[in-house]
Specification:
heterodimer, A: 483 residues, alpha+beta, Beta-Lactamase, Helix Hairpins, 4 domains, five-stranded antiparallel beta sheet, B: 267 residues, alpha/beta, Rossmann fold, 11 helices
């Protein structure tokens, strides 16, 4: 126990405490002269002689002296304390130690400052951390610059957005395109460049990607610096940072105006070509009809050939109609002739029109009372496409089911077959232009336009279109219409 | 309510006192008008005391700061002239500390009609040594000062975090020096220091027509005796008074003596 007592006595030995403190102490006059100094500081300074009577500034390099006179002394005089001012002390052997100065003042009875007490801590290690941190910071900045440089080289516009969907970076190509400053990352600035017709769809799609985290991909028109609209493909993917679930969006925006222009030209060509094709085929058809009337007079073989020719002319006509439809849709020339009609009745007459071999059975179930305001002919075209597809692609499935399901705000019409089904990876592309499910087998020819036309018709009615399928069980094609 | 003149808002101009004669106090480097707080009371009975912060310092409107304008000393000279114009001042006694002395000198050369007397507290026409001229400093000394300023505007803990993380969103982390009277934006302070400490106004001294006083402190390492004497010798109608006050800020360390010296000159 006596050991503890000694320890305690040593602890309250003020003089020992002062001199052996783990930091340097000194007291200064208001002029900056050293009045008292502890052993720790003398040891750091490798100084044998007493410093008392000298100016504290003699321990500092000249720049430090200036700083001390201009900052430390006025600050401590006016505010009564200073904390963590950093300096360098010059030791007796010429080496230097980085230090932090903290000080307060002792006020005499007359209210004036009697002395300044200064605590000095060695900040060498802090300086090392500081250096490392600065290095890390510089490295990060360099990396950022490198990435930005690369992004600026790209011909595509590149952008990023934060987790709330606000745009926070654009590359140089963006600024060049819109003729704006690099700091122009306001989301509103970009939105003002979007063609009014695509703005709603863009915002809706962006919100959808925001909530689902799914990839964003849309075609939009943007107004360039010459106030002309050009088509762009806007894409974005979510990027999740490693550990803290911070997300941001990396996006691109590619000018596809030329590409879209080329597609348009192609459609124009198809349009003209199909018109041109139609004329001779129409006259061919007329001739065939004449021949058909005369076939009783000819041989059985000739009658067979005429039937075959008729069938083929019918197919060519269908294809040309598809081509015409598709190019009209593309140019927005599709005129909808809307009127109110009963869905169930329309389905009935459509099924009746389709010439079906005896062993197919088509049943219609669901709400027979639903009426819609739509172009009846076009909707029938969609439905008949679904049914003929079912017959064409699921020939072994003799039962086709049509279901009318009213939902809130819209009605769904679904056509289900019990055929071989469609592989899941092909489902997303069914409604794309020129897409053919079964290209390898080559069993069914066609232009791959039927479902594309259906989708456009439904979309222009403000509805949705889709397909679900289970391989080996069958497929369901559906569309919805607003009610 | 009358609109505050834009200059008076920009430079946080304060006017106190009952006298007719105007005395304009211009703060030195790194501080603001509160540096004069120990001396102004002695003048408010007989003078109209005008205090201000240079654009970019203290409580001035930092948004009016531009590196182009204040990248040369003339920007600060214009601050002083703008204030004289805004307040419609005449025959002003200008009291400048440290780097402000040369700002006042240039202002009085440009527009002598505003000024009656100038008081230089710790002036220097050139801080760098050059040939035979002893300014007191080499370029690397000043570079060291700038480095310390930069480090000390930030301090260790208050510095590193915002520096690493980007200061803008966490202003509370930069709060240590900004609450003190040396509340100057670090970038502005650096520009200010470069403009004032690297300027050479020796050739301007001879053009001053207004009467002036040099207050030379003892043991002032920033403006040593030789520098004060140089000003006194090269400036027409300049008197020099050697103070007992030591250091570079006699208005803070020995306000009484400073007050007496100014009063003796202006009365």
């Amino acid at each position: 126990m006596s050991g503890t007592k000694d320890t305690l006595e040593a602890l309250i030995d003020a003089d020992e405490l002062y001199h052996s403190a783990p930091c340097g102490y000194c007291s200064l006059s208001l002029k900056g002269e050293i009045l008292k100094v502890n052993r720790t500081l003398l040891t750091w300074l490798k100084s044998d002689e007493k410093l008392v009577g000298n100016k504290f500034t003699m321990l500092l390099p000249k720049g430090g002296q200036m700083h001390f006179e201009m900052f430390f002394l006025p600050m401590v005089s006016m505010e009564g304390r200073v904390k963590e001012l950093s300096y360098e002390l010059i030791c007796n052997d010429g080496s230097s130690i980085p230090i932090l100065l903290a000080a307060n003042t002792i006020i005499g009875e007359n209210g004036k400052i009697k002395a300044i007490n200064v605590a000095i801590t060695d900040s060498s290690e802090r300086r090392l951390y500081e250096k490392e941190l600065l290095k890390a910071k510089n490295f990060a900045e360099r990396e950022q610059k490198r990435l930005e440089f690369m992004a600026d080289l790209a011909h595509e516009m590149i952008w990023t957005a934060n987790s709330t969907g606000r745009i926070n970076y654009f590359n140089a190509r963006f600024c060049e395109y819109f003729n704006c400053g690099k700091q122009e990352t306001r989301t509103s600035f970009f939105l003002a460049k979007v063609h009014p017709e695509e703005l709603r769809g863009l915002l809706g799609g962006w919100r959808k990607s925001q909530s689902s985290g799914g990839e964003f991909n849309q075609l939009i028109r943007l107004r360039n610096q010459d106030s002309n609209y050009e088509w762009h493909q806007l894409k974005a993917s979510r990027f999740v940072f490693g550990d803290d679930d911070q997300t941001s969006w990396f996006g691109s925006c590619l000018n596809v105006n030329e590409h879209i222009g080329a597609l348009k030209k192609k459609d124009e060509f198809i349009n003209i070509a199909s018109h041109e094709l139609r004329t001779p085929i129409t006259s061919l058809k007329a001739i065939l009809q004449l021949l058909q009337r005369m076939k009783t007079e000819g041989s059985e073989r000739m009658a067979g050939l005429i039937d075959k020719a008729n069938h083929n002319v019918g197919r060519v006509t269908e294809m040309i109609d598809d081509l015409l439809n598709a190019s009209q849709l593309n140019e927005g020339q599709l005129k909808l002739n809307k009127k109110s009609f009963n869905l169930s009745e329309m389905i009935g007459s459509c099924v009746h029109h389709i010439r079906i071999e005896d062993n197919y059975k088509i049943t219609t179930i669901g709400d027979a009372t639903v009426s819609v305001l739509a172009d009846e002919g076009r909707i029938e075209q969609v439905l008949s496409n679904f049914i003929t597809n079912a017959i064409k692609y699921a020939p072994e499935s003799y039962h086709i089911k049509i279901r009318i399901t009213p939902r809130s705000g819209f009605v769904q019409v679904a056509v289900t077959d019990e055929g071989p089904g469609i592989p899941a990876e092909k489902l997303p592309y069914l409604f794309d232009r020129y897409y053919q499910v079964n290209t390898s087998g080559g069993r069914y020819s066609g232009l791959g336009l039927g479902l594309f036309i259906c989708a456009e018709i439904v979309r222009q009615h403000g509805g949705d279109i889709g397909a679900e399928s289970v391989v080996g069980k069958g497929s369901t094609f559906w569309f919805t219409l607003p009610v | 309510m009358p609109m505050l003149h834009p200059t008076l808002a920009r430079n946080n101009v304060n006017i106190i006192g009952n006298g007719q004669q105007v005395i304009l106090f211009a703060h030195g480097f790194g501080c603001d008008q509160t540096a004069w707080q120990f001396v102004i009371d002695a003048f408010t009975d007989d003078f109209k005391v005008v205090l201000f912060d240079y654009t970019g310092s203290g409580k001035s409107d930092i948004s009016k700061y531009s590196t182009t304008k204040y990248g040369v000393i003339d920007g600060y000279v214009q601050d002083v002239l703008d204030i004289c114009e805004a307040l419609n001042l005449k025959d002003v006694i200008f009291v400048g500390h440290s780097v402000s002395c040369m700002i006042g000198l240039l202002a009085a050369i440009k527009a002598p009609e505003y000024f009656s007397k100038l008081v230089f507290v710790g002036p220097s026409a050139r801080y760098l040594n050059e040939g035979d001229y002893v300014g007191g400093f080499e370029r690397e000394d000043l570079e060291k000062l700038f480095e310390l300023m930069e480090g000390n505007y930030l301090g260790w803990s208050s510095m590193m975090a915002p520096n690493i993380m980007g200061n803008a969103e966490r202003p509370e982390l930069g709060g240590f020096l900004t609450s003190s009277f040396c509340a100057t934006d670090p970038d502005v302070a650096k520009d200010f220091a470069k403009v004032t400490f690297f300027s050479d106004n020796r050739a301007d001294l001879g053009n001053l027509t207004v009467e002036s006083l040099t207050l030379q402190c003892a043991e002032d390492i920033i403006a040593p005796d030789a520098v004060g004497k140089f000003i006194n010798e090269h400036t027409p109608k300049n008197q020099i008074v050697f103070l007992n006050a030591t250091g570079h800020c006699p208005h803070i360390s020995e306000p009484e003596e400073t007050i007496q010296a100014i009063k003796a000159f202006v009365n």
